Amino acid sequence: MNNTLSKWGIEQAGHQDGESILTLLKERASYLKSKGSEQWSFLLTGNEDDELLELITKGLFYKMTIKDDHDLVATFMLSSVQEDWDVHLWGESIEVDTVYLHKLAVALKYKGNGIGDILLNWIIQHAIELGNRRIRLDCVAGSMKLRRLYEENGFKLIEVVHDHCLYELELR
To answer: Which PROSITE patterns does the UniProt record give (predicted)?
Structure first.
């Protein structure tokens, strides 16, 4: 599979993308659960659907598609404002030059094609273009594959809080 960005399109998702993004996130949550992980299992209850749809409508989610057929390949959320979860893990911050990355998910049929690396490279460049100085994210401490992905893309482990690894990447 060609992994150059010319094959893919990355753009802000809109309201019309809500259901397909929810489906992708739930597909990944179900897959993780089948592998023994509780990461994102809360998504399977449907209790978060309205909140996620609102975040998508606000323009905080992005989507990666194949340019030729618009098939949804991946999604992620970027926010320059701390969500409740960020405050819970990081503490309240007044920094205005930090973006928080959440819900990075690749559709199962594209798993193993280097999409995570492509997305992180694009996210880093996009955050720089937006004038941010750092990107923060978290992941379940036991998710070694995900931790390796972030570390291989330059993110530094800051600390482990409530069984979640807090990662940060300084952009300049």
So the answer is: GNAT
CATH code given to domain 5-170: 3.40.630.30
User: H/E element holding 150?
Assistant: helix 144-152
What H or E segment, with its residue span, contains residue 63?
strand 61-66
Q: Which residue's entry shows tokens 């990107």?
A: 135
Radius of gyration of the chain (CA): 15
Query: In b/e form, how buried is each residue of 107-145, taking b as 16+ CB within 10 angstroms?
Result: beebeeeebbebbbebbbeebeeeebeebbbbbbeebee
pLDDT digits (tens, 9 = 90+) for 110-135: 999 899 999 999 999 999 999 999 99
Average per-residue pLDDT for the chain: 92
Domain positions in the chain are 5-170
Where residue 97 falls (left for φ over 0; alpha for ψ -120 to 50; beta otherwise) is alpha
